[in-house]
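Suppose you are handed a protein chain with no further information: no name, no annotation, nothing but its sequence. What can you learn? This example shows the usual starting point.
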Amino acid sequence: MRDISGRLDERFQPVADAFLQGFEEGRDVGASLAVFIDGAPVIDVWHGHVDRAGTIPWREDTLVCMFSVTKAMAAVCLLQAVARGQVELDAPVADCWPEFAGQGKTGITLRHLLSHRAGLVGFHQPVDRDILYDWDRVTAALAAETPWWNPGEKHGYHARTFGFLVGEVLRRRTGRSIGEWFRAEVAEPLGLDFAIGLPERDLARCAEMLPARLRPGVKQDLPPGTREMLRRFGDASTATGAAFQNPSMGAGYMNSAKFRRAEIPAANGHGTARAAAGMYDRLATLLEADVLAEATSTQSIGPDEVLRSTTHFGLGFMLHHDDTPVGLRSGSFGHAGAGGSMAFRDPAAGISFCFAMNQMEMGVITGGASATRCATALYDCL
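A reasonable first move is to predict its three-dimensional structure. Written in structure tokens, the prediction is:
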């Protein structure tokens, strides 16, 4: 069990021990962990298997779906376009997307979209699951949709719609999809093994995502807000249910080639922990200082209409809050993914971090137990 693959600065052996503890406790099946400190890679390790049966080992180039970790990647694309003057944060979305103007949406701006304030968390009427695989259909449906609250007055997590909304603004202003932009402007220049919409050649490298399961003898101790969110999860007449379950994607959707190849920029980025941590380590080369400062300043904080907890958002980034922590310290920013993945930057400590795994945890909306344990061990080593 103590065999681990990869590279590790010996100062951080306790972090590797924390990483392996998730396997010893039966929580993790396969995972990878990468950390940069002040630009230097100090941890790049992986362990376990890509399948529940334990027949295929996790490799250095194994790709894993990080779900909402992708939102920050999508936001970087928009913020680059903002810095270049191609997109405006505070211009009405309808200026470039005229069909969007109806149903009380004339005042919605890109800032509202990036900070989860637009109220377009999901659909009021039932839609079929295939809509999320058809960009034109889903964006047309969002343009015709009525907000769940007055835009700008509240905020709520746009779990699946976020990427389509900001992505359509980018497409209309630049002619490029988020997947195309990310590949050309972020992944290829930095050599990052991460994609929003996988090419056919990379499908064989994907880890099997394993849905959350109740483990015998393990108490599921969920915060009150998370319990309330899960109670609303299956009710599509609520903002929570609409955000997560309209449409219901069906069992095993995240392991289908259709899902992996699609561009769903809120939810289906695939990559390595090394790539995600590497993006945060190089953010200063991707975004101008003033744009990054604004993107990581508070845009939304307080009760979340979807997650039913207190959340804290900048422009596309989750910001640290004790109720929904991303990273461990105030000032950290990044994004977590459903089930337990987490990538963040702590600028004060010079840390860029990513934990990514294939066994999902129940009810996890920020970093899971393994990610948090690894991050805690990391700070203890500093």
